[in-house]
Every structure is written in C-alpha cells, then in structure tokens.
Amino acid sequence: MTKTEVAIVVNPGSTSTKFAVFSREGSLYEETVRHPQEELATVDKVVAEKGFQVVASVGRGGPVKPLEGGTYLVNQALLDDLMSCKFANHASNLGGIIADQLAKDFGLKESYIVDPVTTDNMWDKARLSGLPGITRICRVHALNIKAVARKIAEKQGKDFYKANYVVAHLGGGISIAALEGGKVVDVNDGLLGMGPFSMNRAGAMPLIGIINMCYSMPKEEVIRIFSRESGFKAYIGTEDFRDIENQVKAGDPETLRVFDAFEYQVAKEIGAYAAALKGKIDGIIVTGGCAYFKKFVEDLKEYTGWMAEFFVYPGEDELAALAEGAFRVVDGVEKAKNY
Length: 339
Known about the structure:
Blueprint: E1 5-12, E2 17-23, E3 26-33, H1 36-50, E4 53-60, E5 71-73, H2 76-84, H3 93-105, E6 112-114, E7 128-131, E8 134-135, H4 142-156, E9 164-170, E10 174-180, E11 183-187, H5 207-214, H6 219-228, H7 231-236, H8 241-249, H9 253-276, E12 283-288, H10 294-304, E13 310-314, H11 318-330
C-alpha cells in the first residue's frame, strides 16, 4: 500500500505556533501549541501513527532581505539571517529554522519558506516617494494574497501568471496590492505610513501633523503611536474587529463615523491600485478577518464592484498556502529559489 505523501507545515507566532500535516488534497491534521518543543514532538507522533511519508517541510518566511515571490530553499545564508534577526526580530523568523530541523528529523534533503512578508516585485516607478533618500518599501501579506489570487484565478479558469488582480488583505494589518502576472508590483506599507488606517495603525497621515509630533516627543514614542496606538484603537478604544463589528451593528454613533471613514479609505486604496493596473484587472479580491463582516464587504462592493468582478475570501489560510508552495516544488511545477 502506497503511503500518503505529506508536507509538514510550521507557522510560528508571538504567543503560539501552528503546525499542520497536509497532503496534496488538503489538511490531514492541524494543531496550535504554545511551545515549539511540544510541536516537534507532536509532529513526530502524528506522522508515526498515521504512517505518512514526509516529502517536504515548510515554514512561514520571516522578515528577510527583499526577495522575488516564490518558494525558497532554506540554506545556510537564510538560516544565518533568520537567527541573527538581521532584518527584524519577529516570531516568524523561527519558521525556516524549525522547517530546517524537521527536514533533518525526517531525512529530507531540503526545506522551504514561501512568499515571506519582504516579498518584493515592486515596479521601480512605485519606489519613488517624492523625496530622494526616502524610498517606498515593500512589506506585504504576500503569502495569503498570492494564495487567494491563485484560487480565484483557478475559479475563473484563468492562468494565474497572466491575470491581474487588486487584492485587499484586511485584518490586524492591511495590505492592498496590485498583483500583475502573479507578482505584487505595488502595495501600501501597512506598518508605517501608507494606505488606510487599520485596527491600531495610522496609515497615511498629513505631513504637518507628523512633523509636529516628531518635534514634540521621542522617535520611539512616535513609532509606537503610529504602529500600535492609532486607527480604531485611538478613535474608539478597541482594536478587536469583533468589538468594532458589534458596535457598528448596535449603531454606536462614534464607531459608525470611524467605520465609515475606514471603508472609504480602503475603497480609495483599491481604486488607486486598479488605476495603477490601468483598469486591466480580472477581479477585486477582499480577504482577511475583516471580510467575515457582511455589511463591510457589501459596502466595499458598492464602492468598487463596478470596476471588475468582485470576490470575497474571508480569513486567511497561511498553513494551506505554505503546503501548496512546497508541493509545487516537490511536484516540479515550480523551481525552488536560492536565498
């Protein structure tokens, strides 16, 4: 009897680690644990009990140097950058490190990461900010954005590598991206300074207000406010979208006022990237946790649905996206890139 071929997937977060065992048909086992050590022991046990044949291990890609999108081999250069936290100190740095250890545990020659947040295929014209020395950078929820666009392209019967989409990943952070031929060619920087405000981030801001803040408090305090104490949290005191949704449904006047502005800013950003693609778009895709709120997506469709076919793909399935990236390499559909 042929053993089921599986990929082991690891997605470390700041307070927990998600792992899963995927076949080509989908998830066979998923669990969220508090410590990576527990995770490794559990993976070994599940694989042994089920008799799976492990053909790939893949981890979430941490913040690394700017890269073209795709699946990357975990090599020593990548491990060095992840372990040194050269580009950022983030829990997802552990993804490639754990995937490498799992590959050793299961006798695999290779392990992978897929579409890290520093995936960068931006047009050169999109990098200019308006002032030499200040360059627009690419930080994007590439993993979910590209995975969802692949699914929509398949649904439409289109070639993902020839299709164009505007994809709005709307969750705790926001990435609204122009996707051309499978590549993120432009995107707001949802962490600091671009696009709509979000649950706790400021988004794009009038320059004079920023200048005044920078001259009235330390740099670290300004960064903290813009990246963690702004948006809905600053206006109405919560950054939990479930609370925001409930307050909208209850008709709270201040929440409605802020939510209306949020929808407006998101819709404008979608329109901007549709224009960036010269209107040649095969669809507008709304994804992420906010996409579960029916009123929200209906309002966005009213704003933007006239531009192209409108799709809603709630939540995000990073585990599946990681597994799919690994299997594309294992099956020879895509060649793994070297870091």
